[in-house]
Amino acid sequence: MVGRTKSAEKTVLDVYLERLQDHLAIETKTIETVLSELPGCARYESLSAQMKQDLTMRRAHADEIRMLLGRHGHPAPAAHETVSSILNTVSNVLHGGEESSFLKSILTDISYRSYQIASLDILIFLANRLGFASDLSTLERLRTEENTSMALLHASLPDTLAEYLSND
């Protein structure tokens, strides 16, 4: 059952599809960021290995979001600059004073992951409200994978920072 949001112009389905598009945009931006950061992190073995695993996961997540959009008759949109621009601005404001690009990269990665998890939480709520059981299952799995990835990043952070400081 498709209900109305507070805005009379948009249905819950409209909001859901927009959020899927936004989530795809952030996945795409994160993939681009990881690809650009990988060469600079090559000397940090554990971080580099984790980034490569995350890149594989992010590509799979982007494919699954494209699949969800297609299932609802909406092909994946062209680059969605708005969300990427907002996240770049937030990242620059939060981390603009950081001297090290390595540390800034880690903070940016944590920021992206936090955004992705919150985005998935919203998508799960909307999919549940719309009764999209198959979407719900996919989105919950993606959120679990994001949370697991975030936990690994946090667990490896002390060793990564120690390795960074010993290379200085």
List the defining traits of the structure above.
single chain; 168 residues; mainly alpha; Ferritin; 82% helix; elongated; Ferritin-like; Ferritin-like_SF
Question: Could you characterize what this model shows?
Answer:
Pfam families: DUF892. This is DUF892 family protein. It comes from Gluconobacter thailandicus NBRC 3257. The protein has 5 helices and no strands. The chain starts with 11 loop residues before the first helix and ends with a helix. The chain is elongated, with a radius of gyration of 17 Å. Residues 79-86 and 89-99 have low confidence and may be disordered. It has a single domain (12-167), classed as Ferritin, core subunit, four-helix bundle (Ferritin, Up-down Bundle), CATH 1.20.1260. The protein is mainly α and 168 residues long. Helix 2 runs antiparallel to helix 5.
